[in-house]
Amino acid sequence: MHLTSRTLLSAALAALLQAAAPAASAASGAPVRVGDFSNTGALPPEWQVVHIDQRVPATRYRTLQWDGRAAVEASATASMALLARPLEIDLQKTPVLCWMWRVDAVLQQADLARKAGDDYAARVYVAFSLPPESLGAGLRLKLALGRSLFGNLVPDAAVNYVWDNRHPVGTRAFNAYTDRAAMVVQRSGNGQAAKWVAERVNVLADATKAFGALPFKATSLAIASDTDNTGETARAGFADLHFVAADEACDFSAPSSK
Question: Quick one: DSSP state of residue 24?
Fold first, then answer.
């Protein structure tokens, strides 16, 4: 993703908080399901395609039944756009994000360590806000500058879970463009391509590891296939996204609900 696109990404995701669609929430002990993808072809109203850079083609999204799963398909050809929604998640109660995903194949030229390689066959992105008093003066100034250029609701931090092509699973690094976006290699390589793979991550723990023990508030969730830097083609699927408590198992048996 290009530098301008990377900065605009934060602004675009934060702007979703102004959307009319209700944010996701749930009663204590119940999985917080964050998408109903069962209406084949039509995206749920709470999910919005965010086309960040009009100079770059947009990744295409549609819902479909894919090997028995109600899913979102992302199709990218030298393109970038997010599919994103606002969140209202109590990370103290439900810090764990679960989902299913798949890729046809990983990208060949991508490399998260380089700006020119900042592309991914599949990624899941969680953005956070923080109370101003929890941020240092230097960081507040830095964020204020970014918001003066790209919008008043630029997130304070974000964690990206990516299906990478070269770095080992578990690799952690800051994004090549900004140290406010932490990257976590959740899957790597083609060994599990072309089939659904289940994931379980503790979003609060990962944010804390990257940025310190802070009162994180999850504000938006996005999925994407991103190939605008490398010019490659990617196809990915996402399904069954939900939050659960730290001591609860993921629930991939029940259909998604809003």
Answer: B
Is it the case that residue 15 has pLDDT exceeding 60? no
d(C-alpha 128, C-alpha 133), whole Å: 15
pLDDT in tens, 161-178: 999 999 999 999 998 887
The CB-based long-range contact list for 252-255 (8 Å cut-off, 24+ gap) reads: 252/98, 252/100, 252/198, 254/31, 254/33, 255/38, 255/70
Write down the architecture of domain 3-244 according to CATH: Sandwich (2.60)
Minimal CA–CA distance to 202: which of 239, 237, 162, 159? 159
Strands (DSSP E) found in the chain: 32-33, 48-50, 60-66, 69-77, 82-89, 96-103, 120-129, 157-164, 172-174, 181-188, 197-202, 217-226, 233-244
Q: What is the mean pLDDT of residues 26-45?
A: 80
| C-beta of residue 43 within 8 angstroms of C-beta of residue 35 | no
Judge whether 238 and 72 are in contact, CB under 8 Å: yes
| Radius of gyration over every alpha carbon of the chain, rounded to an integer in angstroms | 17
Nearest to 80, CA basis, from 4, 154, 149, 158? 4
CB neighbours (10 Å) of residue 168?
9
pLDDT for 30 equals 84
Per the prediction, the chain carries an average pLDDT of 85
Amino acid at 75: S
CB 82 within 8 Å of CB 109: no
